[in-house]
C-alpha cells in the first residue's frame, strides 16, 4: 500500500473511525509531559478535542492555548501510515491541466478539504508514529500556494502521477479516490511537504521512535 493509498480505499465511516482513534492518541501525545510544542517561538498547550460541529463544518479537529495570547487556537490533525512528508489534500477534483490553469487564471480553483479551512495549527504524526510535526496553517498554505503556482506554469503531470518542485522540498501527487463516498473515482492533488522545509521556517519536529 503506497502512502497516498493508506486510507484512500476506506469508506467515509471507516475513515472517520480510523481518524478519531488516531486523533485521540495524538492529543494525548501533545498533552504529555515529554512534549513541549514550540512553533515559531510560541508555546502551545492544553490540546482538547473539537466539537462534532467544528469537525464537520470547519475541519477543526482540536483546540489549544498558547503563551502568546488568551484566545483559543484551531488545530487540524493528520496521521500518515507511511512516509515522512506532511500530506495536504489540496485540489479536488482535478480533471486536466488545461482546466486547472484556466481555474487559476480565473481565481476559481476547487480546493480540497485541507486548503478550504483556515486553521491556526497543523499537527501531523508521520511514518506510522515515528515523528511529530507541528506547523502553522499560514506556512502550510504558503508552501502549497508556491508549488501549485509553479505547477500551473509547468506542463503538468506529463503522463506521470507526480510533479516535483525540487527546489522547495514539495511534491504533488495525483490520486484517485477509491472510497465508497460521493468522491469515489475523482482525481485529486495531494501536496507532500518535507519536514526539513517546515523546520526551516519554524515548525516543531520531534522524533518519537
Write structural notes for this entry.
With 209 residues, the chain is α+β, with helices and mostly antiparallel strands. The strands form 2 sheets. A 7-stranded mixed beta sheet has the order 1-2-3-4-6-7-11. It has one domain. Strand 6 and strand 7 (131-136) form a beta hairpin. Helix content is 29%, strand content 30%. The chain has helices at 12-30, 52-58, 97-105, 113-116, 137-152, 195-200, and strands at residues 37-39, 42-49, 62-66, 73-79, 86-91, 121-126, 131-136, 162-165, 170-176, 187-193, 204-207. The protein contains 6 helices and 11 strands. It is globular, with a radius of gyration of 17 Å.
Largest sheet: 7 strands, mixed
The separation of the N and C termini measures 22 Å
As a percent range, the share of strand residues is 25-35%
> Biggest sheet: strands side by side, in what order?
1-2-3-4-6-7-11
- Overall mean pLDDT: 88
So what's the oligomer here?
single chain
Q: Strand tally, please?
A: 11
Give helix and strand order, one letter per element, not per position. Answer: HEEHEEEHHEEHEEEHE
Low-confidence stretches: 1-5
Continuous helix count: 6
**Helix share, percent:** 25-40%
Throw out a few tags for this protein.
209 residues; alpha+beta; 29% helix; seven-stranded mixed sheet; disordered N terminus
